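Renewal narrative, Specific Aim 1. Our central claim is that a sequence can be written position by position from structural information alone. The example that follows is taken directly from our test logs and has not been curated for this report. It begins with the C-alpha cells describing the chain, in the order in which they were read.
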C-alpha cells in the first residue's frame, strides 16, 4: 500500500470520526422524541378551574350578628395558588373563621388567609409556622411591632378543620374544631393593612407561599364571636364536612 493511499485513508477515518461526534452533539441539543421530557399531569391538576368558583348563599357557617366584612365559599373547596378578595378595615374586636383541608406537604410559611404584606407591622395572617408541616399560627401587627403569634394545634392532612381566631380589646383566643386551644393578652390594637385580603397565599410573596389543600369557606367579622357560637358552628360542620 502506497504512502498516499494510507494518508488518504487516515483523512477519511478522521473525517468520519469528526462527523459522528458532530451528529452526537447535535442530538444532545436538538430536541426530539428520544430526549424530550414527558410531563405527567395528575387528574386533580387537570380538573382545576382557571378561577375558583364562588358559592352563593349556600355557605356552611351559621349567620352571626357581627359586622361581616367578608364571607366567601368555594365550590368543591378552593385549590390553587391564591385568590385576592378586597381590602378590609378591622376594628378592635374581630373574628377570622376558615374551613380548610390541608395536604400532607406545604411550602415554607404557607398562607391560609391574611393581608399582612410580608414585611412591616400591619395586617394579620394565618400561615404555617415556617416548615413545621401543618402547624399554623395567627398573628397581627400594631404598626410598630408584630404581636406574638398564637399557634393552632397541628392539623391532620386530608381532614377538614374549622379554625377560628377571636380578638377583642383585651384578649386573643384561637379554636380548632370548636374547641379552645390557646389565648393571650391582646397587648395592642391591629394596624389595618392597605393591601387586599388574600386567601390561599400570602400578600406580596409572588405566589410562592401558597396553601396546598382545600379551602371551603372564609369569614371575617368585626365582632368577637363567643365560644358558644363557635361550638355551635362546629356541631353543624362536623356532620356536613365528611360528605364534601
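The sequence written for that structure reads:
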Amino acid at each position: 500500500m502506497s504512502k498516499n493511499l494510507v494518508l488518504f485513508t487516515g483523512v477519511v477515518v478522521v473525517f468520519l470520526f469528526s462527523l459522528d461526534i458532530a451528529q452526537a452533539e447535535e442530538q444532545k441539543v436538538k430536541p426530539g422524541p428520544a430526549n424530550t421530557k414527558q410531563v405527567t399531569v395528575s387528574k386533580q391538576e387537570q380538573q382545576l378551574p382557571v378561577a375558583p368558583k364562588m358559592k352563593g348563599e349556600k355557605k356552611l357557617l351559621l349567620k352571626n350578628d357581627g359586622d361581616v366584612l367578608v364571607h366567601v365559599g368555594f365550590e368543591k373547596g378552593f385549590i390553587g395558588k391564591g385568590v385576592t378578595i378586597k381590602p378590609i378595615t378591622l376594628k378592635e374586636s374581630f373574628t377570622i373563621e376558615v374551613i380548610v383541608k390541608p395536604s400532607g406537604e406545604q411550602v415554607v410559611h404557607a398562607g391560609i388567609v391574611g393581608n399582612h404584606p410580608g414585611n412591616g407591622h400591619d395586617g394579620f395572617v394565618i400561615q404555617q409556622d415556617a416548615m413545621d408541616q401543618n402547624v399554623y399560627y395567627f398573628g397581627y401587627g400594631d404598626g410598630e411591632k408584630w404581636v406574638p403569634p398564637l399557634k393552632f394545634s397541628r392539623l391532620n392532612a386530608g381532614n377538614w378543620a374549622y379554625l377560628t381566631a377571636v380578638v377583642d380589646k383585651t384578649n386573643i383566643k384561637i379554636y380548632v374544631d370548636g374547641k379552645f386551644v390557646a389565648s393571650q393578652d391582646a397587648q395592642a390594637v391591629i394596624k389595618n393593612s392597605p393591601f387586599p385580603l388574600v386567601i390561599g397565599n400570602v400578600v406580596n410573596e409572588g405566589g410562592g407561599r401558597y396553601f396546598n389543600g382545600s379551602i371551603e369557606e372564609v369569614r371575617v367579622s368585626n365582632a368577637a364571636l363567643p365560644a358558644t357560637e363557635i361550638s355551635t358552628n362546629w356541631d353543624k360542620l362536623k356532620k356536613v364536612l365528611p360528605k364534601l
